């Protein structure tokens, strides 16, 4: 295959499958390829092959944790959780006084009891199991103005800025560095007030090898998901 | 991706298909940082990436029951959803984009037994980076820009200062060379 010879029909089909997966086709060409996908098993197989092959490119991306509110929003949108304060406390009709209310009340009590009694099924706000390992990290900048404290109990992590907020138009981004040569994982942007709280996902195991770092990024965090600014503070976890 | 991780994810997806919220939470924990990175890579905007990530997991919840039929490995299925949603959003202002849907292969009978194609896919995945390195730098860069940043032919033509047809021709050839390399 040199740049001058035309593609064979088989090569042309392969290239078309790749273009469809990549989203490079437009208009009629795109519609024709989509139609072919539903009718031609060989073409569908080629498309699947390209989806697998190219997904490898994404596997090389540095993971970036989404803020906890993203998960909450998904739960709300799927009806798995209620938004805080969606019940109007001033609503006039006291529905719980009717028979349906009694039934709902009984069910709620039963559900609560089930939650309390079933072993290994803690509620979402269950207190930390006693004996869960506790770690902390004190991060401070070279100028000693920037200071932040992190605490991890079990899989629950909190981090808060104690002093030294980022300048206007900048943010400190929090990174988790799993080991000496691990790629840093973004945990999100350090809030200017209050603390950031998250549940550590599987694969992010607290240990004394783990370091937390703050980098200087544009407001809202690194637009690419990779640290772009200098590291302002870094500290290893210490077991308590 | 190891076989153990693959079967863990498949197990979670099959439980999600049955409406298991704990499995959905576990799947989110295991994969959301990677999928968020995909959204961010294409959109380069944190709030938009976060919003897109929500759409991705809603689609995962709704589409999990059809996952088994599509013959894709679990990470490919998830990454493809995240990338397609991100590119839809990226191009929402202009013409409607068309990317092969994540359940493309489910639309016609799958010819390959799934485990075998999974092994082949894993081998190709290992070769991918090596083979990209064998392409000339602009070509490898173009493949990455198209997949990871949602470049169109017009974007590539502008970046390279070449006519669209020229860019299209060399990208198609680069992709074929890449496939020959990873499948050899």
Largest interface, chains and sizes: A-B, 69 and 79 residues
Radius of gyration of chain A: 26 Å
Radius of gyration of chain B using CA atoms only: 17 Å
Name the helix and strand elements of chain B from N-terminus to C-terminus, one letter apiece. HHHHHHHH
Give helix % range of chain B. over 70%
How many DSSP-defined strands of chain A?
9
CATH level 4 superfamily of the largest domain in chain B: RNA polymerase sigma factor, region 2, helix turn helix motif
The span between the termini of chain B is 21 Å
Shape of chain A: elongated
The tally of helices of chain A reads 5
Name the CATH class of the domain at 134-239 in chain A. Mainly Beta
CATH names the topology of the largest domain in chain B as Rna Polymerase Sigma Factor, Chain: A
CATH class of the largest domain in chain B: Mainly Alpha
Considering DSSP H and I runs of 4 or more, what fraction of the residues of chain A is helical?
A: 25-40%
Widest sheet of chain A: strand order?
A: 6-3-2-1-9
> What percentage of amino acids of chain A are in beta strands?
15-25%
Largest beta-sheet characterization of chain A: 5 strands, antiparallel
Query: What is the overall silhouette of chain B?
Result: globular
CATH topology of the domain at 134-239 in chain A: Immunoglobulin-like
Structure description:
The complex is a heterodimer of chains A (240) and B (184). Among the domains of chain A are: 9-59, no CATH class; 134-239, Immunoglobulin-like (Sandwich). In chain A, 31% of the residues lie in helices and 23% in strands. Chain A contains five helices and nine strands. In chain A, the strands form two sheets. In chain A, strands 6-3-2-1-9 form a five-stranded antiparallel sheet, with no helix packed on it. Chain A has a four-stranded antiparallel sheet with strand order 5-4-7-8, with no helix packed on it. In chain A, helix 1 (9-22) crosses helix 3 and helix 2 (27-39) crosses helix 3. The longest helix of chain A has 19 residues, at 41-59. Chain A starts with 8 loop residues before the first helix and ends with a strand. Chain B has 184 residues and is mostly helical. Chain B has helices at residues 3-17, 21-43, 46-70, 74-90, 114-134, 137-149, 153-160, 164-183. The longest helix of chain B has 25 residues, at 46-70. Residues 109-113 of chain B have low confidence and may be disordered. At the A-B interface, helix 1, helix 2, helix 3, helix 4 and strand 5 of A face helix 2, helix 3, helix 4, helix 5 and helix 6 of B.
């Amino acid at each position: 295959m040199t740049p001058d010879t035309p593609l064979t029909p088989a090569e042309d089909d392969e290239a078309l499958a790749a273009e469809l997966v990549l989203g490079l086709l437009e208009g009629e060409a795109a519609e024709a390829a989509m139609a072919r996908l539903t009718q031609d098993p060989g073409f569908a197989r080629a498309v699947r092959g390209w989806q697998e092959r190219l997904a490898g490119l994404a596997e090389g991306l540095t993971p970036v944790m989404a803020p906890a509110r993203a998960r909450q929003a998904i739960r709300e949108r799927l009806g798995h959780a209620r938004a805080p304060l969606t019940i109007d406390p001033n609503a006039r009709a006291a529905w719980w006084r009717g028979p349906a209310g009694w039934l709902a009340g009984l069910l709620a009590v039963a559900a609560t009891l089930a939650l309390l009694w079933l072993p290994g099924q803690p509620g979402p706000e269950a207190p930390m199991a006693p004996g869960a390992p506790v770690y902390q990290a004190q991060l401070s900048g070279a100028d000693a103005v920037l200071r932040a404290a992190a605490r991890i109990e079990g899989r629950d992590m909190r981090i808060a800025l104690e002093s030294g907020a980022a300048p206007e138009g900048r943010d400190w981004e929090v990174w988790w560095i799993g080991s000496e040569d691990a790629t840093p994982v973004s945990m999100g942007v350090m809030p200017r007030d209050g603390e950031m709280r998250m549940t550590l996902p599987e694969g992010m195991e607290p240990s004394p090898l783990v370091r937390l770092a703050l980098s200087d990024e544009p407001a809202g965090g690194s637009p690419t998901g990779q640290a772009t600014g200098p590291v302002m503070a870094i500290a290893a976890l210490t077991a308590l | 991706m190891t076989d153990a991780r693959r079967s863990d994810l498949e197990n979670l997806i099959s439980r999600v298909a049955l409406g298991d919220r704990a499995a959905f939470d576990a799947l989110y924990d295991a994969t959301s940082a990677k999928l968020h990175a995909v959204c961010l890579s294409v959109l380069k905007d944190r709030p938009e990436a976060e919003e897109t990530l929500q759409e991705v997991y809603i689609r995962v919840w709704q589409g999990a029951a059809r996952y088994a039929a599509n013959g894709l490995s679990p990470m490919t299925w998830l990454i493809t959803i995240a990338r397609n949603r991100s590119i839809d959003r990226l191009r929402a202002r202009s013409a409607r984009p068309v990317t092969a849907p994540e359940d493309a292969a489910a639309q016609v009978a799958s010819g390959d037994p799934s485990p075998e194609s999974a092994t082949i896919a894993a081998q190709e995945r290992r070769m991918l980076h090596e083979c990209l390195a064998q392409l000339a730098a602009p070509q490898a860069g173009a493949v990455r820009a198209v997949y990871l940043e949602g470049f169109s032919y017009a974007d590539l033509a502008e970046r390279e200062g070449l006519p669209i047809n020229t860019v299209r021709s060399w990208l198609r050839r680069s992709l074929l060379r890449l496939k020959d390399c990873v499948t050899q």
